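User: Show me sequence and structure for the first protein, then do the same for the second.

Assistant: Starting with the first protein.
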Amino acid sequence: VLLQAYGGGWVQAGGSLRLSCAASGRDFNFRSYNLAWFRQAPGKEREFVAVHRWNGYTYYEDSVKGRFTISRDNAQNTVDLQMNSLKPEDTAVYYCAAGRSTIMSTLRAVSGYDYWGQGTQVTVSS
């Protein structure tokens, strides 16, 4: 399974970016996976941002609620993250991930995901 993330870049505070992640792989049943975005800032641990579960439910980290929107296209095998009203503290490398955990507590954990993209840098200047 290969996840390829793209769409990062540099933006001023208050601006917007849209990240996309394309999944591929033999016998990869995209529809059955929870798809998430995580981020990792320099010197910090990788942290949960948002997840779009296989059943349609979405969850967000508190600091991005109302600003970020996760969406998926099961026909195209893609998951997007629309980021609005960006803040300097959103600066990080963003990773997409896919997993099939059914345990709610793991949806926000790195351990809940089996496949990871390569990461894309998002830089927000003040």
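Switching to the second protein now.
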Amino acid sequence: QVQLVESGGGLVQAGGSLRLSCAVSGRTFSSYAMGWFRQAPGKEREFVAAISWSGGATYYADSVKGRFTISRDNAKNTIYLQMNSLKPEDTAVYHCAADPGPRLPVNYNVADEYAYWGQGTQVTVSS
């Protein structure tokens, strides 16, 4: 079993910053690609960012490009999502996801491509 646990969510004013963390434990693979997705009330889960095992490949949704940064520390089995210039529309539950293998799935922005998921952490941005 693989466990993913997110942390770092909270309430912040528009324009503020938060850093989310996702710790991976349990049966760890030699390598795995990771992604962040979010889901707002009444909306579908949507892609936010993704990163390959090496960190050499990163991708972002257009809505967060230039404001969010995904990174990872493989020695700590942890990935991060630095979120700056937050907007009320960023309010959602943020989930991290893992896919075994060094490379990101071809459809890295599709939730079904990821095998393991965390429970999520709530991010609320007030206007």
